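Attaching the record inline, Q. Sequence:
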Amino acid sequence: MAAQGQSSDFTSNLGRVYAIYTGGFIAFVIFIAILEKMGVPNQILGYLFVGFTIAIYAMIGIMSRTMQVSEYYVAGRKVPAFYNGMATGADWMSGASFVGMAGSLYLLGYDGLAFVLGWTGGYVLVAVLVAPFLRKFGAYTVPDFLSARYGGNTARLIGVIVLLACSFTYVVAQIFATGIIASRFLGMSFELAVFVGLAGILVCSMLGGMRAVTWTQVAQYIVLIIAYLLPVVLLSAKKFGIPLPQLTYGSALQEIAKLEQGFIQSGLAPATMKIHTAPFTSYTPGNYFALIFCLMVGTASLPHVLMRYFTTPSVREARISVAWSLLFIFLLYFTAPAYAAFSKLEVYSTLIGKNIADLPAWVYSWGKLNLVTVCGKAASSADAVKAACGAISGHAGILRWQDFGINTDVVVLSTPEIAGLPYVVAGLVAAGGLAAALSTADGLLLALSNALSHDIYYKMIDKNAPTARRLVVSRFFLVIVALLAAWTASTRPADILSMVAWAFSLAAAGLFPALVLGVWSKRVNSAGAIAGMLAGFGITMLYLIVTRYFPGFGVTSLGMTSLTNAAGAPLIPDMAKALAAPGALDGWVLASHPLASKVGWLNMNNISAAVFGLPVGFVVTYVVSMMTPAPSKEMQDFLDEVRKPRGNTMMEEKAA
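Structure, as predicted:
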């Protein structure tokens, strides 16, 4: 697909190409199932799953290589709405959505729905307020729009800084997810696994830029949606005889409620145990709705999401593309609550109340990675579990609800094993999780490298740089940023979902006011936008830093209603530290979640930091604009034209 003619032929035959690809992938899964029946070791099957899928993505990336600027940055603006919607779905279905969201729903129950509502609702804002107008404007990047709308490179530079902060945070989370998957299914250390995953990311995006990323993401969406739906469909059919988990979700919740009451009555759980369907037991109402708000606005501000709508042939296609995006995202989000419920139902039914000497093998498989704990210690072996529970005074050797802990980031990956499904299903889920993390990482790394190469190098340092040099510089930055992100991920900075949520607040406070007012207000000017971006981003960053690294500096220790266990130990990622003292297991310790202890002003969790920065950004932008001269008549006329739903692209780039 390197040549222009080949690209056109490929675009005109997309239906056939991806139909063949989907059929081939299903045949491959059946082939792996046959190998499993023949007794091929699981580790070999894991290598085949991961290796085959990465090889396909790499092949697409290599075939999509290009030396054309328009193809590299915006896929030549030739991606049909349907396929751009699918690519956007893959770009969006990150490690957080695929790997982390159902895990957080498992832990948080009702309160976890804030993530589903916020992320889904955000696409309404994208469709109504931002995406079509940026497409008509004709930019390569979000900072491109800020520079042209507000004049000069100051707004561009601030936009790049915000983009780097939120996108780097986000990409670290994706590489973290690839490390978890590769370490479990390839049998290697987590620190090495993140760099193995990085190789798969780079080969998809480095040679072909947005064109390669787009067609790879379509392929990745097909893998990830099949992988996500299949286990929960099988569980729904197994439990209730109906292969539609969305319809049997209510029945699963009823079963969970019965088991929870039974645990309390039999002494297998304290009376204060967290009830799955009870609202506001993890987040206060204020934190719950603040989180929904921040995720919605952040969705409409993330540069790697908005970049996807620069690739459509027209403004109309951009609008239609958002609708397709919502559909493809809905398929997963509508299933995630059911996934969490069926996973919890399996744990409750098959694990709680079991003799600790008879725990299933999957507990130890994930315990060796310090992702499953029993009695406050990593369940690395039967002896380790026996020693940990034996150290608790009066422990009867029966696994209680409060004895078991599972990291939220592995609930989805471990559910097939928990439910006793064939290994081929577990391998498929791993391949799906890898596809989700790779697809989002590709989009994020491209957004980062484009900002550095296009907005900084080309627009601010060397405006006469030839095409070849621009693309070499972009690929150089792509590799450097990727290596830095992989190194950061290898240090295990936090859990996937919280890292992603920080990115949403940073993008919301730093970019949303300037983007929305830049389209919808002719009075907002350069001075106002620059001041608003600095104020909103600065306050949000300050809140994140203080609550994360200086929790004792003028902040409260409360923000969630279930912050600690009965012994007062905080719910932190390393449960062994929190639960070391005897008797520390008498409260809620079902799983760890670093969102719990990071709170500050007005008892607001730090993942909702944009509730402070966003209003400040809007107010400062408006006030400063009113105090300074209005934009030129030419700019105001330009905005009138940008808002029209029809017409040609406003700023056509020069052919390269």
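The chain has two domains: 4-349+410-642, 354-399. The radius of gyration is 25 Å.

More tomorrow.
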